[in-house]
Amino acid sequence: MASILLSLNTQTVLPLHTKTRTTKTTLKVLRFSHKLPSSSPFYCNHDTRLHLRCQTTTGTPSTADFAVAAGQDRLRKVPIKNIRNFCIIAHIDHGKSTLADKLLQMTGTVQKREMKEQFLDNMDLERERGITIKLQAARMRSVYENEGYCLNLIDTPGHVDFSYEVSRSLAACEGALLVVDASQGVEAQTLANVYLALENNLEIIPVLNKIDLPGAEPDRVCKEIEEVIGLDCSNAIHCSAKEGIGITEILNAIVERVPPPRDTAAMPLRALIFDSYYDPYRGVIVYFRVIDGNIKKGDRIYFMASEKDYYADEIGVLSPNQMQVEELYAGEVGYLSASIRSVADARVGDTVTHYSRKAEQSLPGYEEATPMVFCGLFPVDADQFSELRDALEKLQLNDAALKFEPETSNAMGFGFRCGFLGLLHMEIVQERLEREYNLSLITTAPSVVYRVTCVDDDIVECSNPSLLPEPGKRRSIEEPFVKIEMLTPKDYIGALMELAQERRGEFKEMKYITENRASITYELPLAEMVGDFFDQLKSRSKGYASMEYTFVG
């Protein structure tokens, strides 16, 4: 018996333009003790050299390897017909961020060693709470039928308080992945987000996530989507983002079913700003989607709403970190930095065009967000008032739904009255101000605005009890009402109706969506909902019910 110790070193060489891989193997003898017969596959003619008779084979690489290699090449330009802009919409906790992670990994956009869970959620708050607060964009490259495609993904939040973020990202896309949890089915935010997507005429691809769970019922959920939303689910994709099942099918479906952007590269530049943030070193950084024309590094650009002009010092794409490029054309999503010092110059929803060749008409932009919940923010130390104002301005750049105006109080001194879309939004803004800008704040209890009609037909809006006219001068007081739709399993209908009646709610309608789930609609005063209504809804339905509300007047 001969004992041989070998060290084997294998390298895989994967050229980008071929689909086969070559394996180069070097064999090093560490030690062997015995002469071998010349007929054996290992035979020795010297004591120190070993010959190995072997065959070399070339195999086909796995799809994953090939995708990763293509992903490294994602800055390469593709024709406009090969660009796909899409976003992911879903209810809270249905697996949007996990799916986004998997897409980034499968397309090789993020290396395996850099990967972490919820890769796109880059705020500490988002990681702690496990929710998405900000929309995030990422550019990926995918190869389909030997052609390179550029996929621009926008991950959106799922909570009702951040629906303004969702509506902004939908305006920058042509398609949407509708992710539904295969064990929980259609929920309130699923419906709300689908209607937002349909208003923007997006192509919707239904995706059933978490099919690996023991409680998953994909067929029941498919039926539910067809009945409730009216989407055809015959070609819905079954996937599990955690296990990586069905991810390739999703990438193929995006290429096949999402329409490409219109080819308008020859027209004057028009780009829609869908997000922005303040960088202390580079000023305001603007995220935009080019609708018409093209933009090059160093161009003189003009913001149509604020009527200011700057030079684009740096433009690039988000992949998911910022990567510089020389030019972007119609259909692409990117960022620009132009040493913009003033926060008010680059507002979300504004149109960017060339200074020398201005577009005739600006893009429609976004509707203004209407704040629902108001509270007073006061600095603990009165000297921090100006810092609080700067912080609010910078935060408003990143969170366009935030509204604020100065306010004075006898007890607290100078501060701001801020408007938010909901209680969670209020909590997040307060926490971000304290963390990111090192402020210590006092928050007053949330309240709503009342409208008072006086005897002389004057109308006064009161957000503070001290502003209320005297009883002799007022004819009527009106308060804001909301229409609230609760989706719940049938076992909790009684408890939720009782809750709404206690809160001065007016019953409107109840309908069964499927045999086990009902939708209950009420109209109730916003002041009653501002408190702990949502917490009560969750505790009375053991967390199964979900809600969605709209302002009625």
TrEMBL record:
<dbReference type="Pfam" id="PF00009">
    <property type="entry name" value="GTP_EFTU"/>
</dbReference>
<dbReference type="GO" id="GO:0045727">
    <property type="term" value="P:positive regulation of translation"/>
</dbReference>
<dbReference type="InterPro" id="IPR006297">
    <property type="entry name" value="EF-4"/>
</dbReference>
<dbReference type="Pfam" id="PF00679">
    <property type="entry name" value="EFG_C"/>
</dbReference>
<dbReference type="GO" id="GO:0005743">
    <property type="term" value="C:mitochondrial inner membrane"/>
</dbReference>
<feature type="binding site">
    <location>
        <begin position="209"/>
        <end position="212"/>
    </location>
    <ligand>
        <name>GTP</name>
    </ligand>
</feature>
<dbReference type="InterPro" id="IPR035654">
    <property type="entry name" value="LepA_IV"/>
</dbReference>
<comment type="similarity">
    <text>Belongs to the TRAFAC class translation factor GTPase superfamily. Classic translation factor GTPase family. LepA subfamily.</text>
</comment>
<keyword id="KW-0547">Nucleotide-binding</keyword>
<keyword id="KW-0378">Hydrolase</keyword>
<dbReference type="InterPro" id="IPR031157">
    <property type="entry name" value="G_TR_CS"/>
</dbReference>
<keyword id="KW-0496">Mitochondrion</keyword>
<feature type="binding site">
    <location>
        <begin position="90"/>
        <end position="97"/>
    </location>
    <ligand>
        <name>GTP</name>
    </ligand>
</feature>
<dbReference type="InterPro" id="IPR004161">
    <property type="entry name" value="EFTu-like_2"/>
</dbReference>
<protein>
    <recommendedName>
        <fullName>Translation factor GUF1 homolog, mitochondrial</fullName>
        <ecNumber>3.6.5.n1</ecNumber>
    </recommendedName>
</protein>
<dbReference type="InterPro" id="IPR009000">
    <property type="entry name" value="Transl_B-barrel_sf"/>
</dbReference>
<dbReference type="GO" id="GO:0003924">
    <property type="term" value="F:GTPase activity"/>
</dbReference>
<dbReference type="Pfam" id="PF03144">
    <property type="entry name" value="GTP_EFTU_D2"/>
</dbReference>
<feature type="domain" description="Tr-type G">
    <location>
        <begin position="81"/>
        <end position="262"/>
    </location>
</feature>
<dbReference type="GO" id="GO:0005525">
    <property type="term" value="F:GTP binding"/>
</dbReference>
<dbReference type="GO" id="GO:0006412">
    <property type="term" value="P:translation"/>
</dbReference>
<keyword id="KW-0472">Membrane</keyword>
<dbReference type="InterPro" id="IPR000640">
    <property type="entry name" value="EFG_V-like"/>
</dbReference>
<dbReference type="InterPro" id="IPR035647">
    <property type="entry name" value="EFG_III/V"/>
</dbReference>
<keyword id="KW-0648">Protein biosynthesis</keyword>
<comment type="similarity">
    <text>Belongs to the GTP-binding elongation factor family. LepA subfamily.</text>
</comment>
<feature type="binding site">
    <location>
        <begin position="155"/>
        <end position="159"/>
    </location>
    <ligand>
        <name>GTP</name>
    </ligand>
</feature>
<keyword id="KW-0342">GTP-binding</keyword>
<dbReference type="InterPro" id="IPR027417">
    <property type="entry name" value="P-loop_NTPase"/>
</dbReference>
<dbReference type="GO" id="GO:0005759">
    <property type="term" value="C:mitochondrial matrix"/>
</dbReference>
<comment type="function">
    <text>Promotes mitochondrial protein synthesis. May act as a fidelity factor of the translation reaction, by catalyzing a one-codon backward translocation of tRNAs on improperly translocated ribosomes. Binds to mitochondrial ribosomes in a GTP-dependent manner.</text>
</comment>
<keyword id="KW-0999">Mitochondrion inner membrane</keyword>
<dbReference type="GO" id="GO:0043022">
    <property type="term" value="F:ribosome binding"/>
</dbReference>
<dbReference type="InterPro" id="IPR000795">
    <property type="entry name" value="T_Tr_GTP-bd_dom"/>
</dbReference>
<dbReference type="InterPro" id="IPR005225">
    <property type="entry name" value="Small_GTP-bd"/>
</dbReference>
